[in-house]
Write a structure and sequence with these properties.
By secondary structure, the chain is of the alpha/beta class. The chain has one domain (about 10-180, about 210-240): Rossmann fold (3-Layer(aba) Sandwich). The protein contains 8 helices and 7 strands.
Length: about 260
């Protein structure tokens, strides 16, 4: 049996990367998936998650068309950072606006819809899955705005779990390591980043970056009945990036 049969899911940032992989996996598992992205594309709904009126109206459209919203995956995100003393307020606002404020806005209206709908047989009204980052639980050189936005997503998610758990709504964050997506490539393909990219890859205990499909698998778990007792978590899916720091000792022991 497919794990998301009869569920209605909204996936933001669904045009590429983690969002696209999650939408595809949810479709394969039987969900009715409504795909959002700020960039129009075939099969998707053009929604800028910073636009509160657009978000509110689009969620109302989903409820009218499908009767309910069971799962929200907030995968819309942008990269950005740099040294704070050189960062313009416009750049700070752009990153915080998409990554954190956009997550707040979509949660606001999806949760309102979930509260109005009848719970399922298991007493649950819905599952919120916010894509954060390991950069939301530890610092990274030059991360500034991005790290701040993702750290905010982690704590916002924990508060959602506390506020709405007794109403049958679960809320969890996923904290990916460095995932092979167009957004990652846009950063590491810049001039002078080749050796830095290698150092980031090598910092993962598995010796590689992750794939969008691997994050989609984690999202599937959190959306499914298998995670019925999981809420308020910041699920780290990072190939061992945050497990510790390698300094070449494994190679000396013949384990490299």
């Amino acid at each position: 049996m497919k794990r998301l049969n009869n569920l209605v899911a909204i996936v933001t940032g669904a045009a590429s990367g983690i969002g696209a992989a999650t939408a595809a996996r949810f479709n394969a598992e039987g969900a009715t998936v409504v795909e959002w992205d700020a960039t129009p594309y075939a099969g998707g709904v053009a929604v800028d998650v910073r636009d509160e009126a657009a978000v509110q109206g689009s969620i109302a459209d989903v409820v009218r068309a499908h009767g309910r919203v069971d799962v929200l995956v907030n995968a819309a995100g942008v990269a950005g950072g740099g040294p704070v003393h050189l960062m313009g307020a416009e750049e700070w606002d752009r990153v915080i606006g998409v990554n954190l404020t956009g997550t707040f806005v979509t949660n606001k209206y999806v949760i309102a819809a979930m509260l109005d709908q009848e719970p399922a047989a298991n007493g649950q009204r819905g599952s919120i899955i916010n894509i954060a980052s390991i950069e939301g639980i530890e610092g990274t050189e030059g991360g500034s705005a991005y790290n701040a936005s993702k750290g905010g997503v982690v704590l916002l998610t924990k508060n959602l779990a506390m506020d709405y758990g007794r109403r049958g709504i679960r809320a969890n964050a996923i904290c990916p390591g460095f995932i092979d997506t167009p957004m990652m490539s846009a950063v590491f393909d810049m001039d002078g980043m080749e050796d830095i990219r290698k150092s980031f890859v090598n910092a993962h205990a598995l010796g590689r970056c992750g794939t969008p499909a691997e994050i989609a698998s984690a999202a599937l778990f959190l959306a499914s009945e298998d995670a019925s007792f999981v809420t308020g978590s910041a699920l780290v899916v990072d190939g061992g990036y945050t497990a510790g720091h390698g300094h070449g000792i494994a190679e000396l022991m013949g384990l490299g």
